[in-house]
Each structure stands twice: as structure tokens, then as C-alpha cells.
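the six lines:
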Amino acid sequence: MTESEQQAEKSKRLPRAVREKQILDAAVTVFARHGYHPASMDEVSEVAGVSKPMIYSYLGSKEDLFLQCIRREANRLIEAVRTGIDVDVAADMQLWTGLRAFYGFVAEHRASWTVLHQQALAVGEKFAAEVTALRSHAIEMVTKLVVSEGSRKGLGEQAEFSGEGLSAALVGAAEALADWWLDHPDLSPGVLASWLMNLTWLGFNDLVQGQVWRPS
Amino acid sequence: MTESEQQAEKSKRLPRAVREKQILDAAVTVFARHGYHPASMDEVSEVAGVSKPMIYSYLGSKEDLFLQCIRREANRLIEAVRTGIDVDVAADMQLWTGLRAFYGFVAEHRASWTVLHQQALAVGEKFAAEVTALRSHAIEMVTKLVVSEGSRKGLGEQAEFSGEGLSAALVGAAEALADWWLDHPDLSPGVLASWLMNLTWLGFNDLVQGQVWRPS
Amino acid sequence: MTESEQQAEKSKRLPRAVREKQILDAAVTVFARHGYHPASMDEVSEVAGVSKPMIYSYLGSKEDLFLQCIRREANRLIEAVRTGIDVDVAADMQLWTGLRAFYGFVAEHRASWTVLHQQALAVGEKFAAEVTALRSHAIEMVTKLVVSEGSRKGLGEQAEFSGEGLSAALVGAAEALADWWLDHPDLSPGVLASWLMNLTWLGFNDLVQGQVWRPS
Amino acid sequence: MTESEQQAEKSKRLPRAVREKQILDAAVTVFARHGYHPASMDEVSEVAGVSKPMIYSYLGSKEDLFLQCIRREANRLIEAVRTGIDVDVAADMQLWTGLRAFYGFVAEHRASWTVLHQQALAVGEKFAAEVTALRSHAIEMVTKLVVSEGSRKGLGEQAEFSGEGLSAALVGAAEALADWWLDHPDLSPGVLASWLMNLTWLGFNDLVQGQVWRPS
DNA sequence: TATGAATGAGCTTTCATTCAT
DNA sequence: AATGAATGAAAGCTCATTCAT
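prediction for all of em together
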């Protein structure tokens, strides 16, 4: 939704739930545009088409507002990825579809991703904790996939590797690639997901030997 | 260097270069502690043991100051990594030693890394550009390694993969793991580097088949 | 009446007079609790169990509301004191019973007294005038007593003393003692009245000579 | 000092102590004029001829500022009364000279008295405590006088009277008379002190019998 | 060189008050 | 009759920045 459309929606005497959505939408837009600190409540109120006292009345302080932005967007992201995963297919396919869904979300919700990834971490521990929880959630999901795949192949977990550490690196790589993508558009979510699969599932070594991973 | 040591250094009539170093050290400390916007020039001047007019006289505005922090720390990081790499060994070993040097730097310069990675990206395009340049530098180095390894094995670059994209993902994974590390200390730089090597050089697939990469 | 009882009374479609009483009761409570300026109309409406527009519709602005609080409580106080005085007894007994009635009112209506004495004077001339009128009323009553006692003893008013001035001091002493009482409970209205009688009717000089005034 | 004189003093680059005095003077003026809550820091800064950041830098928050006003004026009042008392004369004369000094102070520092007596009590417990301490100080002084006079006449303290209670009433009467005076000028401090002496030292009873207390 | 003194500008937040239903 | 929704206006406070010494 563009900002002008958001403003076009403004009218008078709307029910509280609608106003809250307007305000959160505007807040995500503005926080993504300037970052938390430089963003002014004035701009949020302007973009939302709502006076400042309404914001404070409905959503609370600037911190409260930011926190609720983060939580809403985090839940949306989780939902998008979960919906994108087919739990009945092989581990690598689950990873691939999950990644594709992730990049699909980022593509459609640039502002959400910016707020979640770039801003929330920089503002303070209180907010970073929310994002850290989100990330932990993702890491956990990936860890399960890897471990289950290992078990299927008859291998116990190798003590010298932390499944969690490897998963953290994978998730981090996925996030970093999402950021990189913001500066290099014109690639589809599927392509990005593919790269990550080849890098992490096969590894450089296999790649240079001519092997390629492809969604089956 | 601790903050008290920094303050202990304050005295009068010092040469300009010394003052500038004091100020930049203090600024990095303060920017890492609070982030760019909440950091106040008052606190910088206090930590540096230098009056505010001196800061403005020597290093310019708050933005200028931050920019110079970023640049100095970026150069230090580059230097540390370059020094850590032995260009005469195999590609995988170069990657490994480079990563180890990177994590070594992060371990020793927490504040520098925080400013570079968490703050600079969130403040504005002007600063993000500096970090992006730094990252591009890293990506370029990795790309060379991968491509040369591929050539050595007689393979041309495969069209469907962007060596740059893969490298971006690897670099991103390395950065993400550095962040993750901040919350999970008690691991040596070598261990982290090892994880990344196994994840990206071998890939999950090899790992679950029992293969392990080890520095030769 | 406790606050919860006040709220329990809230319901719909009550006659105007009842609503106005609810509102004034709540207002006195809230103004006594926080003082005029920090008190918010929101809190008044909440305590009264009545929406803000009703308050404005029935009793006007915040100033109007406060004014009506003051007037109602002032009239209550006057009524309580007048009822407590037996006009057929001697002057000193009238004074004593009047004082006792005054302290009885203060004991039972803490909030009223706080609003009348501490808040109304501090807010502005418009409100102070109401309290000043109340006080003048009291001074006048006391003056009559003193003058009539003087006449009974065959003495004209002595030019060098203003009966009004002396009465003002007595009334002031009575008020001050009421305030002091708020911080030193556990004394009965009769005891306080007794002190004042001994101080002002007899005077320190008589007291130190062993004389004591007692209600006859 | 008039407000215009205060402003006339404004100039640039003054030492901190001078600025602090300017600001406190202005604050007392403004707090007396409007009361604590309606008084704005903008007006204080305007009257002081100093920008708001200086006020916050030197004196702290609005509450801090108010507190320091109260404390400064309380100390001034105490000093004025102490200086006015000759401790080598009889008890009644000490009381009289003390009262005269008190009214002299009030006459010369109207704003100080208004802030101390009308505003500080109404704003909140934190401030009222300061004034209560001041009043306790006065009560204590009076109590000593009365008790010493009783001892001199060979009488022990009478159990049924609290010397403190009587003194509180006297002090309250003195304060009340000061307030009353603000609305009835054209009387000298000596006259007011005289009234109080006759009321409390002799008492109504003696007065109506034709006795009069006069400074010896 | 070095700094205490000083401020313009802007931010978050709150409140008395009213409209539209 | 009664109220949830809405806001203009203003207050307290802070900060990057500079001047005068």
C-alpha cells in the first residue's frame, strides 16, 4: 500500500481497530524511512492521517509504538514462512521453500524487513530481544531440519559442531543476502533461495566440482 | 584500553594527532554504547577528556565524527584480515585464516564491530555506504578465492550462479555469526571459522554424510 | 463515601441532580488528591463514572467545576458550624462550640477541607475570593462575639485594636491548627478547640500563671 | 528589585553564580505570580533573561528549581527572624521582636512569602515537607519561649496542654495574619505583631477587661 | 590552544475541550 | 441523554552547535 493510499483512507470517526492499523502501518513506513530515533511522532501522525494524541491514546509512547510494529511484523514474517513450508517433503525441499517464502515476504514488505532487521537491532536491547527471539525461532526450525536429515542418513550429531551454530550461520547468511538484495534487485526470491541452498547444502567444494543442487 | 585509562590520558597542550586519537577512541566507545543518535557529544567530550569545542574544531560535526570512526575502524579491520591471510597457501586455507583473523579482530575490538555492523547501517545511507564498501571489499576477496579454486579444478564459472552472490551470502553468514557470537562467548575464533568452513565449503550435504573439513 | 461506592452508583439514565452530585463528589475527591492543576478531567470522569462530555454539559469547564466544588463545600462548612453553635449561651461557650463544630467538620470531610484551604487559595484570585469570603464570614461571627462580650463588661471597643484583626488572627489560628491536625491525628475536635480557647481567650500570660479555661 | 531591573541586569557571559541568582530570582517572581503548575519555564527564562537550557543546566528540572526557590527563601526568612530577635530580653519581648521581624520580612519579600506559604503547600508532599520543616523550626522557637516563661514563674508544664500545640496555633495565627495582611495593607509590621501579642499573650479575656500588652 | 557559557530548534508527551453518533 | 473518537495547543526537557574569553 502506498503512502498516498494510506492517507486516502483517512476519514473521521473510525472504530479504534481501524485507526490502530492505520497508525501501525504509518509507523512502520516512517521507522523504515528514517530509523527509530530520527523518526518523529509528528511524521507518523501525518502519514497516518491521525492526530498525535490518538497515537498516544491507542498505542502508547514512541517506544511502545515501535515495539508493537516489531511484533506485528515479526508475526507476519513467521506466518508467511510457515505457510510457505510443506512439511511433508524432504528436508532440503523444506529448507528451500522456507527460504523462498522468506524472500517473498521481504520482497513484498520492504519496510517491514528494514524495521525488523536494520532498526530494531540498533535501537536498544529491549527491541533487539524481540528480533533475537524471531531469529532463534528460525534457527530452531533449521536445526530440526538438519538434525533430522542427519538421523535419516544414520548419523548421530557430531559433537564438534553445534547444530545451532551452523543454523545460526545459515540464518545469518539468509538475512545478509536479504540485505544485499535490497541493493541488488532484479532477482527473484527463488534465485536467492537457490544460491543459499547451493552454498550451504552442497557447499563450495561440491560446487567447484561441478555439482549443483536443484529443487527436485 | 579502558575508559579510565582514556581519561587518565587527558592533559593539556597535547599535539593534535594525540587529541584526535583520544576523541576518536572515545567516540567509538560512546557510539557503541548507545548508538549514534542517543549518543551525545557531551558524553563523547567527557569520555575523551576534551572540551566540545575541541571536538568540533578537530573533527567537525557529529556526522563527521561518526564517519571518521567508521572509516578508521573499517581500515583497521581490513588490515587485520589482510595480515591474517597467507596468500601462498590453498584457497580453503586462505579462507580459513581470513575468517579466523576476522573473528580475532571482532573479539578484540567489540566496540569497533558494534559500531561498524549494528550502528552504521541503521543511521543513514551516507554511513551505510561506507560499510557497504567494506563488505564489497570482503566479497571481492572471497569471490577471487572461489573462482580461482574453480579454475584450478578446470571449471569455468557456472552461469547460473553469481560468484558475487554466493560470496555475499558467505560474508553475510560470517557477519551474522559474529553477532551471534556476541551473545554466545566462550568460543574461540578458530571454532567459529571452522563452522563456517564446514557449512559453506563442504555444505550440509557432505556433513551429513560424515565428511568434515579440517585445516590441513 | 468511598471511591468504590461512588463508582458503584454509576448507572444509566439518572436524573440530572444525581449526576451532578456524583460529579461534584468525584471532583472534590480528585482535586483534594492531586490539587487543581494536576487533576485531570479524565480522572474526574473516571471516578464519577460519567463521561467527560456529561461533565462539560452539566457543570461547565474545569474552572467552573472547581468553583462549584468550593462553593458547595464552603456552604456545607458554614452550615455545620452554624448548627453547632448555641446562640443562647455565653460568648466563650459559643466560641468553643463553634470551634468544636469546625474541627468536627474537618475530621469528617478531609477532602473538603483540603480543597477549600490548601488548593483554592493557590490556584488563582477567582477561587481565593470564594475562600476569602468564607473566612470573612467566620471573622465577622467571631468579631460579634468578642465585641458583645466587651460591651457586656462595659467596655467600648478599644481604638488601637481592630476587632477584625484579632478575629482574623483567631480564625487563622483555628485554620492553621486544622492543618497541623492533619499531620497529628489522634486528637479529638474538643481538645483542639480547648487549646485555642486557652490560647486566645486566656492567653499565654494567664496560662503560665496557672489559670485554665474550661467549658463551663 | 523590579522585574525590569532584573532584566536590565542581563548581559552575556556571566559567571555561573550570578546566573543562578538571576534565575532563582526570576523563578520566585514567576512562581509567586502564577503558582507552580501554571508557571512555565519559558516565562522563567524570559524574566531571568536567560535561555531555558541554562536553567536546566544550572538548576535542574522544574521541580528542582522550585525546591531551590523554597529553600533559599526559607533560609532567608529564618535568618531575618533570627537577626530580629534579641535573646537577652524577656520572653514576651523576644516573641514580639521576632514577630515584628517576621512581618518585616513578609512586607519586603511578598513573592517569597507567597511562594513559601501559598504555593509550596499546595503542590505536593515533597515541597510541603520543606515548609513544614520551616514551620516546625518556628514552633520550636516559640515553645521554648513559653516553656521558659512558665519555668521562670515556677510552673511545670501542664499536662493537658501541648506546648507544641499551642505554639502551632500561635505560629498559624501569625501566618494567617500575614496572609490577611496581603489584602489589608497600610498597617506596619509592629501593629500586626502587637495584635498577636495581645491576642495570644494576654488573651481575649484580659483584653475585654481593659488590659493591654505593650512592648516595655 | 582550549573552554565555560550560551542558545535555537525540535522532540515527546499531555490535557482541556468538542464533535459526530 | 450519553459517549467514544478526535484534536489544537502548549509544556517540559534535551541536544548539536557556537561564541567570547
